[in-house]
Amino acid sequence: MKKLLFSLAVLTGAAAYAQTPVGTVVNNFTLTDINGNSHSLFNYLDQGKMVVIDVSATWCGPCWSYHNTGALNNFYNQYGPTGTNQAMVFFVEGDPSTTAADLNGTGANTQGDWVTGENMPIIDLATSASFENSGMSIDYFPEMYVICPNRVIIASGVAGSLGTVNNLAGYLGQCPPPASNPADVAALNYLGSLTHCQGSYTPSVQIQNNGTSPLTAATVTITQGGNTVSTGTYSGNLATYGTANVTCTPIANFTGGALSVTVTTTGDASAANNNVNATIAIALTAASQYVTVNITTDYYASETSWNIKNSSGTVVASGGGNWQDMTTGQAGQTVQTPVQVALTPSQCYDFEILDAYGDGICCSYGNGAY
Questions:
Q1: Beta carbons within 8 Å of 41's beta carbon, 6+ residues apart
Q2: Nearest 5°: phi and psi at 6?
């Protein structure tokens, strides 16, 4: 029988509707808070501040639980404009169908009073424009984004997990300093595929101008085991914090492994942001054209689903998404019925496992497996 090449692209903490990923460069937005004050994202970022956005809904139980910890308000008081002035914080009521009465705890669709005692700006998307044109999405509640002055999301996920005062204070130290030198190029993200079937492989990298002058030229060098295996060049006119994607020369007969990316430009002020690394998984070779998918879900089985995609990205098999949640206790495991899938021999496939809430299949709700 012909062999089947099968690569595992496992997204354990992601989802078909997962939060905007870490590393995304956002666009500007301007929103009006419930007191009528206008807030521009880039205005705060250009002041060198880290911006934290908590997106909740007045009817959301987990949102209310996080709200009652006081962590977000405490962080704002310590590190916001009346504290060290290192950060800006926004509470966003993200369900446009809720009302001002709901925010104030007197409506029919609320967990309580979200306004009294809160010092940070409160944005109600029922009365203010959405910020989704910025490139950030609202996928569940409570969802949190942490954005650095260079417009890059450095944390995204469930607010209750990310948003402790200590966690948020720790992110302050991870943001790069604001642009201050004329020439400063950064390697921002590795964009090439993290799985490879066989034959030639083409690396790709996203670069950013962290300098105060336009970036007109840069060179990308990719090494493996200390040897240069691919190069690329950028030429153009990239404004401060602008980004560009550089497609590099193909690597012939690539067999996977760790790649080191370095980007440089003339007069580069900082080498600390010039590098990004990526590890490329090579496809596994199977002796059979059949695969069996075994999934063990946590308490919230309905959040878990899986896909098998062919080399063109078409889903050829899938499952889950409608499994029943457990109804007793707070944690547990369910072994789902195995599914056998027949695939075409001598082809490459990716396996994805997805979690709709974005917190994976582990830990306090039970340890799942695939």
A1: 26, 28, 29, 30, 51, 131, 134, 147
A2: -135, 120
Residue 338 in tokens? 């195995």
Which of 253, 262, 210 lies closest to 231, judged by CA? 262
pLDDT of 129: 75
Residue 138's alpha-carbon distances to 91, 210, 304, in angstroms, are 13, 28, 19
In this predicted structure, what is the pLDDT of residue 121? Answer: 97
Beta bridge partners of 278: 259
What amino acid is encoded at 92 in this protein? Answer: V
Amino acid at 112: G
> Helix (H, G, I), strand (E, B), or coil: what is residue 162?
helix
Non-local CB neighbours of 364 within 8 Å, separated by 6+ positions? 330, 331
Are the C-beta atoms of residues 60 and 54 closer than 8 Å to each other?
A: no
Q: Is 357 exposed, middle or buried (0-12, 13-18, 19+ CB in 10 A)?
A: buried
Query: What span, in angstroms and rounded, lies between the C-alpha atoms of 43 and 85?
Result: 14
Q: Give dist(CA 364, CA 331) in Å, integer.
A: 6
CB atoms within 10 A of CB 35: 7
State the residue for tokens 């409570």: 142
Q: What is the DSSP letter of 198?
A: S
Q: How many CA atoms lie within 13 A of 287 on its CB side?
A: 0
Residue owning tokens 């690539």: 254
Task: Give the pair of three-digit tokens for residue 83.
Answer: 């504290």
Query: Measured between alpha carbons, how far apart are the two ends of the chain, in Å?
Result: 26
Cα distances from 25 to residues 56, 268, 275, 284, 302, in angstroms, run 22, 21, 17, 33, 31
**H or E element, residue 50:** strand 50-56
**Which residues of the chain are under the pLDDT cut of 70?**
1-18
86: nearest Cα among 174, 11, 145: 174
